[in-house]
From TrEMBL:
Residues 132-215 form the DM2 domain. InterPro entries: EIF2D, eIF2D_SUI1, SUI1, SUI1_dom_sf, SWIB_eIF2D, SWIB_MDM2_dom_sf, SWIB_MDM2_domain, WH_eIF2D. The lineage of its organism: Eukaryota, Metazoa, Spiralia, Lophotrochozoa, Mollusca. CDD domains: eIF2D_C. One of its GO terms (biological process) is formation of translation preinitiation complex. This is Uncharacterized protein. Pfam families: SUI1, SWIB_eIF2D, WHD_eIF2D. It comes from the Eukaryota. Residues 239-312 form the SUI1 domain. Coiled coil: none annotated. One of its GO terms (molecular function) is translation initiation factor activity.
Length: 331
């Protein structure tokens, strides 16, 4: 079973004098308030919470300290320091903050070196860990319930294979004559056989696993730095790259779904703007719960694809539109 765990980030170096704080809640509050008072700007908004943690809070954290970020921002929202907005499932951003909050008035926040924040923005991103999983459905629950699983629980393919293997061995369903075949008991037969296969009693291992996974709900467990792991039902939506014609001559490159991968669209747009000396803006996606798109002047597919692959280290299978770049190079 895939289990979630609290997201933690360790600060390895301290470049400013920070008072010793032993209590974790007090440390979080101190770093949070310092970030609001001395680091974050209105122009940074909207800001991914993972970026806020690394770029704005972490520099105020003493060396060797670990910040646990699980439910802290929700508490800060309830105390009216900030307002959060869910851009998509599991991806939050800070949409507003209140620097005039009474609890910030008497806070003396240390000054940070100007360069440190710029470096932090450049190095803040860590690619997500994406684990493709299969969720137990009503149809497949009889196979797993005796092993302690419930409907909706998720398993990676490796875990799934192990559970099926254990079930087969426990129930002595592997034939001695041909170990590549599995004897179907009533549970396996009910899950795997079609209506016109009622008299079939054996299935090859690979076919057995394929038929079982076909009856399960596919999903992805996404682990983003600084955030709780998120389970998404269905296949992982890729980052989409498209060149769109606007007007008779103008073209723009549109990048969608960056936030699903923990990429801050504002930071991404700025990087493209500086590198290509062109306009790059962020706009709300027309699709519900799809966050913000980046719109770049001109056809910048080659540079953007290289940026995603090399700097952000996004696997090719999660980028839609790379094939158009390859075709353009061949011409």
């Amino acid at each position: 079973m895939v289990e979630t765990e609290s997201s933690e980030i360790e600060h390895s170096e301290a470049s400013v004098e920070i008072p010793a704080i032993d209590d974790m809640d007090s440390l979080l509050r101190y770093c949070f308030k310092c970030a609001l008072k001395k680091s974050i700007k209105k122009s940074d908004l909207p800001l991914l919470t993972s970026t806020f943690l690394k770029v704005h809070m972490q520099p105020f954290c003493p060396a060797g300290s670990i910040l646990s970020f699980a439910k802290f921002l929700q508490q800060m929202q309830s105390e009216e320091f900030i307002k959060l907005k869910e851009l998509s499932k599991g991806v939050d951003s800070i949409s507003e903050f209140d620097r005039s909050h009474p609890d910030l008035r008497d806070l003396v926040a240390p000054d940070l070196p100007a360069l440190e924040k710029e470096v932090a923005e450049e190095t803040a991103y860590e690619p997500p860990e994406i684990i493709e999983v299969f969720c137990i459905t009503t149809a497949t629950l009889p196979l797993f319930k005796n092993q302690g699983f419930s409907k909706g629980d998720s398993l990676s393919l490796t875990e799934l294979r192990k559970q099926i293997t254990d079930y087969v061995k426990t129930n002595n369903l592997q034939t001695e004559a041909d170990v590549s075949q599995v004897q179907l008991d009533p549970v396996l037969a009910e899950i795997t056989l079609l209506r016109n296969e009622g008299d079939r009693s054996l299935l090859p291992w690979n076919e057995l696993i394929i038929r079982i996974t076909d009856k399960m709900q596919p999903g992805c467990l996404i682990k983003l730095a600084g955030q709780q792991p998120v389970l998404r039902k269905g296949k992982m939506e890729p980052i989409k790259l498209n060149v769109v014609q606007r007007g008779s001559q103008k073209k723009v490159t549109v990048i969608e779904n960056l936030e699903f991968y923990g990429i801050d669209p504002r930071v991404f747009a700025h990087a493209v703007q500086i590198a290509m000396a062109c306009s790059a803006t962020t706009v709300d996606s027309e699709q519900k719960n799809h966050g913000v798109n980046v719109v770049v002047q001109g056809n910048q597919m080659t540079f953007i694809s290289k940026l995603l692959l090399d700097k952000y280290r996004i696997p090719r299978k999660y980028i839609q539109g790379l094939e158009t770049v390859s075709k353009a190079k061949k011409k």
